[in-house]
Amino acid sequence: MQIGLGEIFSLLSAMTWAVGVILYRQLVRGLPALTLNFNKNLLVLVMLLPLPFVLHGTASPWMPWSDALIAMASGFLGIAVADTLYFVALARLGAGSMGVIGNAYSPMVIVLSLLWLGERMGPWQTAGFMLVMMGVLVIAKRPSPAPVVVGEPVPPPDPLPAPEPLQVGRELSYASAILIGLGAIVMMAVAIVMIKPVLEAQLLGWVTVLRLMGALAGLVIIAAVRGKLDLLRARGRTIDWKLLLLAAFFGQCLSMVLWLAGYKYAPASIAAVLNETASVFILLLAWWWLREPLGRRGIIGVALTLPGVALMLVN
């Protein structure tokens, strides 16, 4: 078995994301989603600014305008717009249903990689994909949530902050909310597949910074369109900045760099499936760190996922 650099980065990304989730669980809830999302990404951008010089030294950051625009568009689409749609669907469906919808991400990346990039998975990788997805579905399955009243905030899945009440109106049906949620997942998948050729051709550090700048610009535009620019300001709000700094470093800064590096050096279809192992790492860390019970479902999920990962790594 020969493990590639991209596969290692993808697994490390899942691990660091899981650490970020555990840290986010300890943050005080109640902040508007836009406030926490914007300030978190602003912190991450400040952390990432030295990254290009650390990784690439004095190498020229020049890239074609088309590549720079694709990098920023990926952040705009995959972080700003997709997250906003995600929260709208979350307010109607609840955390459990959105967790299940989120499992469409890897299959969507695989389909887009097949159509857009011409990637193919071998028989071992296909078998591994099936095992990993079965394990993730077993872990993600929850008892049916209580009925959700439209317009009332509901507890989101970690590590997302509790969204501000979204007055989406009674006209938003359950089916419409499902379509919006799936639309968010599709946008996330499109955003990463569209940037893969740029990742392969350009310097990782500069692409990462440009993508995050596109996301922040998108959040400002969304806030302006919604007439909620005041929500971007953290002043006067109770925020545990030390904990947020740690969570942003592990869950976004480090995880994002490793995540993009995984897509740079491994096929997008393989990287997407390996990223799904974050569910297993979150489960194990919650059991070890927060003393949360593992449970029979968790044990079965881990038992399915680990051999699936091993098959995905067969080269």
Keywords:
mainly alpha, 315 residues, globular, 13 helices
Helix and strand arrangement:
Elements: H1 5-25, H2 33-48, H3 51-56, H4 65-93, H5 95-101, H6 105-117, H7 123-140, H8 174-201, H9 204-225, H10 241-265, H11 268-275, H12 278-289, H13 295-312
Describe the structure.
The chain is mainly α and about 325 residues long. It has one domain. Helix content is about 70%, strand content about 0%. The protein contains 13 helices and no strands. α6 packs across α8, α8 packs across α10 (about 240-265) and α10 packs antiparallel against α11. The longest helix is centred in the N-terminal third of the chain and has 29 residues, at about 65-95. It is globular. The model is unreliable at about 145-170 (pLDDT under 50).
Short description:
71% of the residues lie in helices and 0% in strands.
So what's the overall shape?
Answer: globular
Termini Cα gap: 6 Å
Category from helices, strands and their pairing: mainly alpha
H-E order:
HHHHHHHHHHHHH
